[in-house]
Protein 1
Amino acid sequence: MDTEGPTKAHVVQDATTGEEISGTAIPPSTPDKDRDIAQKRNAFTELLSPSKNPPAEPTRSTLTRHDPTALTTFAGRAGLGAYIHAPQSFPSSRVISFDESFVTINDLYPKSSIHTLLLPRDPAKQLLHPFEALQDPEFLSTVQEEVIRLRVLVAKELQRRFGKYSTKERSREAAVEKALEEGKEINEASLPRGRDWSRDVISGVHTHPSMSHVHMHVLSVDRHSECMRHRKHYNSFATDFLVDVGEFPLSEEEIIRRKKGGWLDRDLVCWRCGRNYKNKFKALKHHLEEEFEEWKKE
């Protein structure tokens, strides 16, 4: 992460496009063979599975036919309110879980292979800027606990989805298989550690959220998604525009530094190798495809 803020004043920018902001929460309907298999093994991992293609902007007819909140006021920047107001109205492919305090959903426009959102349901906090909402010690504590829980679940889904490609995971599995073949008791302490997937999960809130309702991002680190289409998309998760929930409460100085702006205009730097692509997003995007394949093999 950056250690110094931008050196000059910048116009505050959204990390998402106008089309994304005006989009509605219509669930994808693309079937996936692997997803069907996963459902039989683990109900939660099925909930985290995204569609292969990014959702298209809906037409008026699809709104009427599919969107359970089409006749409410939850539109544009207030779109996340639909999930908070009536999470039970959405399919499990969109809403992962909910209780009286939080709703967890798959991001409609994911910026990584796994991208979830945590939505607090506290009416007193819903429409506050996250910097203000998370200054409340009690609220911050509950959010931090939920983010930790969600990070664990995302890590487990990463293991399920990409474990077969991982060198560390294969080494551990081979040791287990060998012990079973030899009729030996499996001693966890003697097994190779395997891959720590929790290191491949990032989380936080945006300095300038594009949506009105307070929300926390919990996503895989890969930034591999068809919805990663712009420089600002990438930099919203690769600079200090993203603030880890664990950093709260923020000091007044830190709040000022974060809100200065300009984070989305910074050079495009690969999250994995550190190579600087300046403002060449297309080149970075191609590079990220290569890094994604190598990252899976770790």
Protein 2
Amino acid sequence: MAADYIKFDTNFELMGGYLSPVSDAYKKQGLASASDRVNMCELAVGQGSNWLMVAPWEARQKEYQPTAQVLDYFDQEINEVMGGVTTAAGERKRVQISLLAGADLIQTMSTPGVWSDEDLDHILGRYGSFIVERTGTDIEDALASLQQWKSNIYVIQQLIQNDVSSTKIRLFLRREMSVRYLVPAPVIKYIEDHGLYEEDASGSTSSLHDKSRLGSSKDTIN
């Protein structure tokens, strides 16, 4: 969905995206271990994605890394350490790093006191964000207080409505209901083999649905 939006509705060309699971230092109730979440993400993207990858750096940190700092890490690694990307013409070009997230996350950004003004400006002003519509979230209301970064926020409409969430997946698993076709088969096997989410009754969102970081550059593609 995000890849199609970038291809048909923007001047960017997508070069890759990273799933970046949060570390154990986040200490959110209901999360599987960081190592388990990295493994599940790797199994999920191994099912044929030609642009999604898993970045374990954030998951391996002993201290919680705010979203702004994680985006800084990707910017440093891709644009400074790697020197950007090579275009088809052989030119080196910097990559625009952006945050890919659901509308529920952007809604928290418009909630007073949840995010600092400094972090909001760093994330939305410097990097920008691609936001996927989510059932139950009023995207217009969520964006109302973020108008100063409007040019850097791209809303991706769901052409086919999908309200699958990690909360619902975990609920199904606790009730021993099938999640076939909702979660990649290798991930289901991993969950079963490792006995994950069997005791989780918190109802909080697990990180099977992790933040993604997009790498894109105008007029280039890797």
